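hey so u asked for the seq, here:
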Amino acid sequence: MIPRLRHEAVLRRYLNQFPVVGLLGARQVGKTTLARSIKAKEQGPVTFFDLEDPTDEARLANPKLTLESLSGLVIIDEVQRNRGLFPVLRVLVDRPSNPARFLLLGSAGPNLLRQSAESLAGRIVYHELSPLRADESGPESLEQLWWRGGFPRSFLADSDSTSTTWRTAFIRTFLERDLPQLGISVPATAMRRFWTMVAHLHGQRWNSALIARSMGISAPTANVYLDSLVDALLLRRLTPWFENLKKRQVKAPKLYLTDSGLLHSLLRIESGPDLLGHPIAGPSWEGFALHEVLRILTVDWEDCYYWAAHTGAELDLLAFDGGRRIGVEFKRSSSPRMTRSLYSALEDLKLDQVFLIYPGTDRFPLHKRVEAVGLALACAEGLT
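ran it, structure tokens below
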């Protein structure tokens, strides 16, 4: 087991500030393991419910009767399985001198988010548990983390073939069992085909009409399928940045699978050497590096953008650090250099600093406001 200390520290801080904390993440990403680690270190009483356990499910058939006598930390796993729980929690946490704090674990889905937002507004804070990142696996394992992805069982498998087998099984289980449990009614075969098509678009702009024609569905239906994967935290949209510039700008979001290992399995890439010879190798590495940089910069996806003008100028990532504008470009090249796009981004976006991330181990200036930084070095030392 790899300790998830960064996430554990965030959850402990939230539990001291809010009566209810929601820990969201994709299936098998390690939410239960993290919750049990918090339970083991808790000083006071802890009660743990797993709603996939029939006994615990029965205990919470009348949640108010069961929960109102509890004190200390109450952990409820797979909370989305009990739709009547959220209004009861609101009543409990509004009690004078409320003796309990609640840690709710669940796979993000439209039902879970809507219920908690309506019933627990102002009382709950969310934290997303991502797949493993380099600060948890160690920068020395960067290549393995890229190839296998960050789901703990995939990353820690005793061989690449075992890792591949686990990811293949995960995809099948997610499509056949987990999607319906999240309230997403899309046929498994259709969703697998769609997910595979999206994998081919990893790091590219979304075109609903193109995918719709390929699948024989409408563009609105294609967008519903896309929302389903986003809600399940298996896909990210990076929105374009709009500014009052002279150049016309691109409006479609870019798509990134949240886990590089799942990307490789969806495209039936069987090994690391096969990946290096595949056309997806560049976009896959860039998406992997993007997730690491967002962790290093401690910014959320909602606060990040990409920029592209119809002239061809682009910037992979635009983030805001206080009043500073930070640009990031990703290049899977051993010889990073300044490009016309970087010069355009510096001028048009008034960037304070740009980092060009490449698969090396050094850092060196390319311009007075542009620095090339190897990904391994950035993971080990940070960017600033």
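The radius of gyration is 22 Å. The first strand starts at residue 20 and ends at 24.
lmk if thats what u needed
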